[in-house]
């Protein structure tokens, strides 16, 4: 069997070392199979001479290919980087992407809800290269590393139906030079917030209702009201009109809504329906927040 000439390897600290930077006599290992690699360099240049490279010791690694080595190296290091940031309580790691449907630019925080990282977690119908889990152990983000094989349609449907955001990187060997920088710019993220876009997927949006102090702009009385918020696992928070299902959610949560009605309130200069009590002042009730609201950061 022809010897596989490998251009990069892991050292004992799991750092990526390229052949041009390797030193003879230092142990290295294969990113794919974990077997020992030997650094080879004749020191010769010119026609007929082999470039410096790694090779499996004793001719092993029969199932390793250049594609699988690249895939495994990028996957392992990506999982390490994300897990280290979670372990050190890092609150933010920003991704930047453009929607493939409407071409709108987006940014999002991949660590917004992530509490754990798993490599090739078995989800029954698929094993994402990297799965990010929330505090309840639910998979919220799937990271797929692509160099030859793209996720199949059935896998994409599973992610969509289960509210899992896909973050995809189409990688080359050059991406190993600075993996952390590369991670900030995925090639595809399955999340778009424009409901008119063909890439918009309602299953990737989460919804909740939160209490807020709301002031009548006529008499300046402050009331406790409830507004609906749509949020994503990447840290987007968007106000929304209160709906019948939101009202049912409040009732089922034990909130007493006697005397509350859905009415228009002004939030950050925009009108939204919220659940607020009637105000007895005249003329007709118009409510807004009592002071300029500091907007939650939008990514």
Description:
This protein has 299 residues and is α+β, with helices and mostly antiparallel strands. The chain has three domains: 8-64, no CATH class; 69-202, no CATH class; 205-288, no CATH class. It has helices spanning 66-87, 153-161, 179-183, 244-252, and strands at 8-10, 16-18, 28-29, 36-40, 53-56, 94-98, 105-109, 116-119, 130-133, 139-146, 165-170, 188-189, 206-216, 222-231, 237-240, 260-267, 270-277, 287-288. The protein has a six-stranded mixed sheet, with helices on one face. A five-stranded mixed sheet has the order 8-9-10-11-12, sandwiched between helices. Strands 3-4-5 form a three-stranded antiparallel sheet, with no helix packed on it. The longest helix is centred in the first third of the chain and has 22 residues, at 66-87. It starts with 7 loop residues before the first strand and ends in an 11-residue tail after the last strand.
């Amino acid at each position: 069997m022809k010897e596989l000439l490998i251009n990069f390897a892991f050292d004992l600290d799991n750092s990526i070392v390229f052949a041009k930077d390797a030193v003879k006599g230092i142990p290295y290992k294969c990113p794919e199979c974990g077997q020992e690699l030997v650094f080879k360099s004749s020191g010769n240049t010119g026609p007929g001479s082999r470039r410096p490279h790694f090779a499996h010791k004793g001719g092993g690694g029969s199932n390793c290919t250049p594609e699988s080595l690249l895939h495994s190296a990028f996957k392992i290091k990506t999982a390490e980087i994300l897990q280290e940031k979670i372990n050190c309580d890092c609150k933010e790691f920003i991704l930047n992407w453009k929607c493939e449907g409407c071409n709108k630019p987006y940014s999002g925080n991949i660590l917004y809800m992530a509490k754990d990282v798993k490599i090739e977690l078995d989800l029954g119908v698929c094993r994402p290269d990297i799965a990010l889990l929330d505090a309840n152990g639910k998979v919220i983000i799937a990271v797929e590393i692509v160099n030859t094989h793209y996720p199949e349609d059935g896998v994409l449907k599973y992610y969509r139906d289960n509210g899992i955001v896909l973050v995809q990187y189409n990688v080359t060997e050059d991406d190993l030079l600075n993996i952390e920088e590369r991670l900030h710019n995925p090639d595809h993220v399955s999340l778009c917030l424009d409901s008119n876009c063909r890439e918009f997927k309602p299953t990737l949006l989460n919804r909740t209702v939160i209490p807020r102090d709301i002031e009548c702009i006529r008499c300046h009385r402050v009331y406790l009201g409830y507004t609906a918020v749509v949020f994503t696992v990447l840290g987007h928070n968007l106000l929304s009109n209160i709906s019948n299902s939101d009202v049912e959610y409040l009732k089922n949560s034990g909130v007493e809504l006697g005397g509350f009605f859905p009415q228009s309130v002004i939030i950050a200069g925009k009108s939204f329906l919220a659940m607020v009590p009637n105000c007895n002042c005249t003329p007709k009730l118009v409510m807004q927040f009592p002071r300029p609201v500091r907007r939650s950061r939008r990514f």
